[in-house]
Each structure stands twice: as structure tokens, then as C-alpha cells.
Amino acid sequence: MTDRSRKIDAGMAGRMDPVQFLAKYAALIFLLLLILVFTILEPRFLSPLNQFNILRQVSVAGLIAVGMTFVILTAGIDLSVGSLMAFCGLVGAYVAKGGFQDRFAIGQAADVGYPVYLAVAAAIAVGLAGGALQGLAVTRLKVPPFVVTLGGLTAFRGAALLFSGGGPISGFESDYTWWGQGRIGIVPIPVIIFAIAAIVAHLVLTYTRFGKHIYATGGNPKAAALNGVPTQRLIFTVYVISGFFCGLAGFLLSARLNSAEAVAGLTLELTVIASVVIGGTSLFGGVGTVIGTVIGALLIGVLTNGLVLLNVSSFVQQIIIGVLIVLAVAFDQYAARRRLAQ
Fold first, then answer.
1. In this structure, which of 67, 161, 175, 212 has its CB flanked by the most CB atoms within 10 Å?
2. Ordered per-residue pLDDT tens for the chain, 342 residues
3. Alpha carbon distance 189, 197 (integer Å)
4. Which pairing describes strands 183-184 and 187-188: parallel, antiparallel, or unpaired?
């Protein structure tokens, strides 16, 4: 290599690519700008009470978004998360109220409720089962994830309505609601659980062979399979992981609201997918991080909270989030084309 070519390579290596820079940091920059704008426009925005409200509201959707990150990294999608979360929350609440003992205690307390850990276990078990069913349909029946989970969206919602008879389950003991309303110090419990889940998921994706296989499968499934990656088993597992987070989130939401109902989580899948995509995870698989998803969830939480404080209509909020998703996907496609061209 000549001295001139070495200088050219060194110059290219040292030059910052603005597209790749934005692909990594656009969500964070936008989040900081939103915080600045809302702080200027609405003094109540930066109050500690409001900040913890944002974190508490983000934690449920954020938990599910962590699981969705695993799915989307394999180039899959899970549209059923809102419905499955509602179903999981109802089953957990039913167990907490003493369900499966002697009567169906919708809207009223049974004689003796089961311990909270059994309620959590029941909610998560339903989530795992729902995720496993969808994973089997994707990997064994070879049905596209969009179709499978679209069916799951309606099926789980129907199951929740059938299970509850359309009525809510409410009025839990304090040891149940503590998980959704309690605090350790000044930090709400759901926020702590969300943070722990995000850290664990980040470590799994970054430092384990399982995480590397997920990226390899999403990037090029045929090449990954030829290199010995068990792609079908891995895709099945990511849907089970998504189901796990739906179960945990369903329990936490019912504990926070002191009520579980079949209509919970309507359109939640939109918020969850938006958090993942805006956070930089590619809908085409193989690119993305849990940290980006957390930033995306915070961005949507801050945006929604700020617009509410400014008395902006909820319909306008949905339009803004929808536009953000389209812009994020369009930019993702552009960045992917540039990567391939280079």
C-alpha cells in the first residue's frame, strides 16, 4: 500500500458518516430536545412528581418493548402483545382473588385469595404459553409472524373477554397492589423492574452466544443456519420471551390500576413497536439494541406527557406517534441501503 492510499484510508476512517451517526443517536437527540422544549413551554414538566409519573407510565409498555426487541431483531413482529398482556393480567388477578377455588369471583372477593407469587406465576405462565403457541405457528407451520400475531391479537382478546365475562377483576390486597403502586425510596417498583429487565436483556444480547445468534439470524437467516445457528429454535424462543414480558407487564398493570380487565392494552402494540423502531432497531432484523428501545420508550412517554400537559388532543398524539414510526422506518431503510452500498 502506498503512502497516498494509506492517507486516503485514514481520512475515510476518521470521517464521521452523518447518516450512521443519526441512526445511532437520533432518538437520544430528539429525546433531549423534547425535554428542553417541554421544560420551556410547561414549568410543571420538570417537577419530580411528573418525572416519576412518566417513568411509571413508561415501565409497562417498556417491559413489553424489551421483549419485542428480541422478536424484531430476528426480523419478526408481535402484534398480539396488548391482547396477551390483558389476558395474562386477568388470570393473575383471578388467582390473587382466590379463583379456581370454588367460584368465579369476578368483581368481588373470593373467600381466600392465593399468595401474590402464585398470581405472578399464573400471569407469566399464560404469557409463556401464548408466546410458545405463536412461536410454534411461525417455526413449524411456517406462517408469517405478521399473520400469526394478528390472529393472536384477536384470539387473546377474545379469550380475555370469555374468561372475564367482560367484567373487571378489582379490589386486591395491599401486598398485590404494592407491586404496581409501591416505591423503594422514591423510585416506583415498576420502574425498578423495568430497569432490571432492560439491563439483563442488554447483557444477554451483547455478551452471550444466544444474543449473537439473534443478530446473526436477523441479519441473514440462511447464512446463520449454514454456520450452525439453530435459527428455528431461536425464533421460537424469542416469541416465548415476548410472552414472558407480556405476563409480567399484565401483572404489574393490574397491580398499578388495582383492576384487571379484558380491554386493557388496546393499541398498546402500536406504542411498543414504535418504542423499538424509534429506538433504532431495524424492522428488517439484525440491527438494534435494548438501550435504544429504552430511549424510544422514554421518548414516547415524554412526548405523550408533554402533549397532555399542553392540552393537545389524544387524537393528535396518535397522529404524531404514527408519523414518527413512518419517519423512523423510512430512515432505517435509507441507512440500510447506505450500509449495503458501502
1. 67
2. 445 545 544 454 556 677 777 777 888 888 898 899 999 998 889 888 899 989 998 999 999 999 999 999 999 999 999 999 999 999 999 999 887 665 444 444 445 678 899 999 999 999 999 999 999 999 999 999 999 999 999 999 999 999 988 889 988 889 999 999 999 988 999 999 999 999 999 999 999 999 999 999 999 999 999 999 999 999 999 999 999 999 999 999 999 999 999 999 888 998 899 899 888 898 888 889 999 999 999 999 998 999 899 888 888 888 887 887 788 778 777 776 776 676
3. 12
4. antiparallel
Greatest alpha-carbon span in the chain: 85
What span, in angstroms and rounded, lies between the C-alpha atoms of 116 and 230?
37
Residues recorded for the chain: 342
d(CA 303, CA 147): 31
The C-alpha atoms of residue 71 and residue 326 are separated, in whole angstroms, by 19
- Chain Cα centroid distance, residue 9: 41
Cell matching residue 275: 418504542
